[in-house]
Amino acid sequence: MTDFLQDLNSQQQKAVTVSDGPVLVLAGPGSGKTRVLTYRVAYLVLERGISPRRVMAVTFTNKAAREMGERLQRLLGHARAAELTLGTFHATCARILRREGQAIGIPSNYVIYDTDDQIGVVRQALKDLDIDEKRFAPASIHAIISRAKNELLPPEAFQPASYLEEVARRVYERYQQFLRANAALDFDDLLMETVRLFRERPDILARYQERYLHILVDEFQDTNMAQYVLLRQLAGRHRNLFVVADEDQSIYRWRGADYRNIFRLREDYPDLVTILLEQNYRSTQTILDAANAVIARNPHRTPKRLFTHRGRGPKIVVHEAYDPEEEAQFVVDTIAELVLRGEAQPGDCAVMYRINAQSRALEEAFIRAGLPYRLVGATRFYARREIKDLIAYLRVVYNPHDSASLFRVLNVPPRGIGAQTIRLLEDAARGRGVSLWQSVEDAALGSLVPPLPARARTAVAALHRTIQSWIEASPSLTVSALIDRILADTGYEAYLRDGTEEGEDRWENVQELRSVAAQYADATLADFLAAIALVSDVDNLMESANAPVLLTLHSAKGLEFPVVFIVGLEEGMLPHNRSLDDPEALAEERRLFYVGITRARDRLFLTYSFRRARWGEHETNIPSRFLEDIPDSLTEGVRIRRRGGHRTTRSILAGPDTRDMPDPIPVPTSPKKQRERTSPFQTGDAVTHPTFGRGVVLEIGPAGDDWEVVVAFERAGIRHILGSYLSK
Questions:
Q1: How confident is the model at residue 644 (pLDDT cuts 50, 70, 90)?
Q2: Which domains does the chain carry?
Q3: 383: closest CA among 516, 509, 549?
Q4: Is position 249 annotated as part of the catalytic site?
Q5: Would you give the distance in Å from CA 598 to the centre of its chain?
Q6: 34 has catalytic annotation
Q7: Which of 236-245, 490-499, 632-641 has the lowest mean pLDDT?
Q8: Cα–Cα distance, 583 to 587 (Å, whole number)
Q9: pTM for this one?
Q10: Does the active-site annotation cover 209?
Q11: Residue 257 C-alpha from the chain's centroid
Q12: Residue among 147, 599, 612, 642 flagged as catalytic
């Protein structure tokens, strides 16, 4: 047997050396699926003597294709690896259409429109059809068109189920006409047109079927209908379809992914051989037991039981915080403690959350602590487009002569103040040495030289009146009320919520900013803007490769970290509100949590907040139903609720607080043990920490064999510290 097969366990060897025919490898997280896929290709070429020209391997991302290519170069050598057909679905289809597309009227020099190009074509189609894009957001229409193409439905076959879809059908027809006239394809066309090519030209399909004796597919659970049909076409002759999948990690339904293709595969290939990969090389058994317990509750899945030889490892810490700010502080403090004890490096740690808006509290906690962090797959909270828009509006209200802020929002959302009008306003301001606001005022009063066209002047005058009304009202409004007014008067919500997942994420960011503003109920607009500026000015906080990573659970797919925190484990957050009435969506939320758990190698921390602000109003949270599925024997932690709100370190050091501060709520411990143990600390004790310095004890609660002590430090604020790291 070829030497490299000795690197594999028995199930991996079985998958790599399986005989011809359709094969489904169900690979749990951390089970070495990429190795199996690459070794299968190497086995076919080196052991079975298959020409690499007759092997196609398809991935979902360019990164995965590159990694597989590099591994195969090491196994096969550069020359043989270069003969393989290896790439993403879209890249593979693009090559086929370049060579064969003329057979169905697609020129070989076609161009591929990116997402921005596609949205632009939708906008043009709406304009041509005299449809108001303020009522029908281009991104929403585009999403419907994309979904139709993924289901292989051209305009004439698309059956609308709502008025919105009827509008989308009309736009779809015009959209396709525009693409054809410009010799262009979009990403979805690459798949749909390749399927059409093979349907309409069976002679061309026969050539590709003959060439590709073996077809291998990575992440099969993420395929859509078009991709599934394409694979069936290509494998139609030899039937050597080898797919690696895990329905438990299918988390891209919103992109069109359909894990049910696994069930279609079983129906279409009755002789399908299924091989399970259950040995995990990443996580401890405690983490795997938690993952197994969580995912076992999902229907429509193949039962799997992940196991490892790494040992049990430490228990999972479940922590209840009072609110997201305290939750974020717990994360930062815990990372600091792990680093201080030499148990982890900062870069070993990852903090995961359901939506991007949750990063705000975490970012602020890291900034306050002076610790670098890395944000993966997203922009820093205060640098996000929608946040910068609203802060720009607030700055204009505070100081209308802030030309940079006014320039940003002159036509956001679109209000008929185009680039030419803005240029005229800027030129007039520059020529007179005045602010952009002065030009806006002059235009509104009809005294701008040269004057604006009538339509532009009307739009500028309307904006001037609106901003002036905010300026006059702002002294009597809280910052959150002013934000509400701006959102209402500008139609910013409708502008953001365009029916796409991205639009919903952006709107949730706006809600988070509004919740931040609600914390400044007694502050002036100037105070709020100053505080935001201090938090968002992180230019001097250089990103470091050895820094904790903040990322969404979706972005975490395919990654692994020694230490993982999953925050915001509350009903309405994870599972998300949008999934609660949809069993399929709820099952995907559970899979998302499962993906998060299985990113952890050594340590796992699960946190939730007792209360969370939603649209500025604080709500009491119910811990996520997913937490209930994890056996108590796998977890430990201390739950502390402080219903009286936060206090500053300065106020605590000055004296006691009369607000309601109930005793800590510890993880249940036997009454006998609680009676036998006496805390070495009492509320009010002066203590010292080697890193954080002097402080005063606020609360004490059991933490396994130690004590979790809440301390107000003179310099570091309120921290949760293990008692063994404190001295009196």
A1: very low
A2: 3-99+192-277 (3.40.50.300), 111-182 (1.10.10.160), 316-379+542-636 (3.40.50.300), 383-532 (1.10.486.10), 649-657+666-725 (2.40.10)
A3: 509
A4: yes
A5: 16
A6: yes
A7: 632-641
A8: 6
A9: 0.74
A10: no
A11: 16
A12: 599
